[in-house]
Design a protein that fits this description.
Elements (H helix, E strand, L loop, with lengths): L9 E2 L13 H4 L5 E3 L7 H8 L1 H11 L5 E6 L6 E2 L11 E5 L1 H10 L8 E8 H4 L3 H4 L10 E7 L3 E5 L4 E8 L2 E6 L37 H6 L2 E5 L4 E4 L4 E6 L4 E8 L9 H11 L5 H16 L22 H15 L1
Parallel strand pairs: 1-11, 4-8
Antiparallel strand pairs: 2-12, 3-5, 3-6, 6-7, 7-14, 8-13, 9-12, 9-14, 10-11, 10-13
């Protein structure tokens, strides 16, 4: 079966007339994705990138501290897709530390190659490596304190994955194609190992450019629920927490600036750690025991309304009470002791 059998993704919802001043809490807590055309069109970096790749690189180098960044590099054979080797014993790319200005020069040197080597600098802290950039190129996000990162490379592809944080991403140079799936498409995306990943997040095993529907037949069903958009410089996309997204750079030089934030305090940790621990402790139990623990999770976690401890005096509820930074740290220490 070929990709010709695949459904065409629906277009991502676009919001008209939204300016940076219109980024309200209602928009930034949306549970569905959306695109805003031209949201960052006035950024000086976007304007430099529209002039030329050379102008965009020179603009970044104005702020660069000189500290080496982490870059992923791969041969032309990977066709821009950073993922696993064929036997899945390793990755199909190498991770290197290199100066950003030299990476930008390399990208310029291969800009016209028919089959270039691929290079990708991902999730690199702007405040650390490009201090001052945000003073000229930024979005107002209220009292949120997002992690702000820059991503750049050539025609690379990031396999479908999800992030725990909400994500507002600005395409600042080049064009990128985003293909999104709602969280419930997990089983149709054929996710790879949870503990051996290209960059920390588990990814879809499906090559979106050459989907093998004999090996991954349910991917056709995932595509029935897909949403897609191509973003140009200055355009922005909001990707809600847990939505799967595949991102493809379409031009020889691409830059993306993104803002990540979470809706719960950092001291509460990440659910992915809980999932791995549950796989260790619950998955192998007999079915009746798994169902019993499923009821515990339903009662204390997934359908918690704060009333499950109402019969316990307020000062004695311990972990059944809402957490603060101190109680979260105490529980984490207790869990670490149990794991040992």
């Amino acid at each position: 079966m070929t990709d010709a059998a695949l459904p065409t993704p629906a277009p991502l919802r676009e919001l008209a007339g939204v300016t940076p001043a219109d980024l309200t809490d209602a928009l930034l807590t949306s549970t569905t994705p959306f695109v805003v055309r031209g949201l960052a069109a006035g950024w000086p970096y976007v304007q430099a990138a529209l002039t030329s790749q050379q102008a965009a690189s020179a603009y970044l180098c104005r702020f660069y501290t000189g500290e080496p960044v982490v870059a992923y590099v791969g041969p032309p054979e990977i066709r821009g897709r950073f993922a696993y080797s064929d036997d899945m014993t390793r990755m199909n790319f190498a991770s290197i530390n290199a100066r950003l200005d030299l990476i930008l020069a390399q990208l310029a040197g291969h800009a016209h190659d028919a089959e270039p080597p691929y290079c990708y600098v991902g999730s690199t802290s702007i405040d650390r490596y490009l201090p001052g950039f945000r003073a000229e190129n930024d979005l107002p996000l209220g009292d949120r304190q997002p992690m702000t990162s820059i991503w750049l490379g050539n025609q690379t592809r990031v396999a479908a994955h999800f992030d725990f944080s909400d994500n507002l991403a600005v395409v600042a140079a080049g064009r990128r194609k985003f293909t999104l799936f709602p969280p419930e498409q997990l089983s149709n995306l054929y996710i790879g190992p949870l503990d051996f990943t290209p960059a920390g997040q588990s990814i879809s095993m499906v090559d979106f450019d050459r989907p093998d529907l004999d090996t991954f037949p349910r991917f056709a069903e995932a595509m029935r629920h897909a949403q897609e958009a191509i973003l140009a410089p200055g355009d922005a996309i909001f990707i809600p927490t847990m939505w799967w997204h595949h991102v493809a750079g379409l031009d020889p030089f691409n830059t993306l600036v993104n803002y990540w934030w979470r809706q719960t305090p950092h001291y509460l940790g990440t659910p992915s750690a809980t999932l791995l621990d549950a796989m260790l402790t619950i998955r192998a139990l007999p079915p009746e025991q798994r169902r019993a623990w499923q009821e515990h999770f339903r009662h204390y976690v997934f359908e918690s309304d704060g009333q499950e401890a109402a019969h316990i005096p307020e000062g004695a509820r311990r972990v059944l009470a809402p957490f603060d930074a101190d109680s979260a740290q105490a529980l984490r220490a207790q869990l670490a002791k149990r794991l040992r």
